[in-house]
Amino acid sequence: MFALAAAAAALAVAVPAASANTIAVNTTQDGFGANARCGLRDAIQAAQTDAASGGCTAGSGGDVVTLPPGRYDLTLAGAGEDANHTGDLDVGAAGGALTIQGAGSDLTTIDARRIDRVIDVLTGADVTIQGLQITGGHAPDGALGAAGDDGGGLRNLGRLTLRDSLVDDNAAGDGGAGAAGPPGSVPFAGNGGSSTGGNGGSGGRGGGIFNNGTLVVERGRVVGNRAGAGGDGGAGGTGGSGVVLSPGGSASGGSSTGGGGGQGGPGGGIFATLGAHISESTLAANRSGAGGRGGNGGLGGNASGSFGTSGSSSGGSGGAGAPGGAYLAGAGSEIHESTVTANEAGVGGKGGNGGTGGTNFAGGGRATGGTGGAGGAGAGLSGSPAATNVTVAANRAGAGGAGGAGGTGGSQVGGNAISPGGNGGAGGSAGGSDGIALVNATLAGNGAGAGGA
User: Which helix (DSSP H) or strand (DSSP E) does residue 328 occupy?
Assistant: First the structure.
């Protein structure tokens, strides 16, 4: 107890903003309003409300929350709320600017333990994070067919300055899988209905940091984060069979098609829709999201009558792998005096397999594999940032997904219908997807992605 208090006092002296109010954290235990001592969540709450929370003294205007060396695990499960009660640490605009000051990124760690992202900077907030490790974040995955949430470690909708800190081993949310297709309708008379599986949701953006405000990173390390993977497409159901009532009539069977895989989330390390400014930093071993697998085709509906067309069965297309393994940034962004190395763009998803085509003595339905998704481009830098005095080395664009296998063609006189496999997806290009301005840059050992089988 004495060591924690002494370290907190030393940190408070080291904070440069002498006029700021200091709230000293003195326990690593997570809690809200119930701790007798001052925990991190209560300290943020006290700064936001200018009122005491748990064992923390009240904030007053701009506040500095000091964290002694230690590991601060977030343990209050419950993602999806923005009141700082559960899940991630929420910082809003109330209470003035906030600084969260650690003892150094090798000494002070905030670990979300996969219950949510780590810190959510809300609209209008002004937050500085210094001397911390931000790890273990996982933004919520998407529901059925929905996109995953953005920002695995940090989501910034206000103003965020990150200094002398490490953002590692965080993940944006994965897209939700598509729903299985319902059976195609079988009419009283006529053609059978088709069945299509639902598409997978897109992966969340920004595995380490998602920025839709103002972001400044100085002397930071963004390492080993990943954006969200696309959800798999749902399987196609059984196509409805055609029904003929009159002699000599014909009716076609419904097709069965797997849903498309969701696209991977871009920006494995950092995704910035607006201006981001990165300096004297390292972005390494991050990965943008993989595309989801296409759903498999089901059973095509049977045709009826001499001229009815049997239902086909097709696998869904694989989702595209995402660009920007390390850093995808919009106009007005920059990176300088930095190293971008060993990052990977997302691989394309595999195409779904064809199922079984419907039958008819005059011609069975085809069963075709789905096309593989394209690999992601720009494993190091993507978008349109200005890059000055940077080294971009040993990054690799995403490989294209393999095409799905052909299924079993529907039976017909003389044999079965053709059942071709799907085409493989294109490999990603080594360069970024848009215009990147390079000045005094070293490019070495980067690779384009292989095409899918």
Answer: strand 327-329
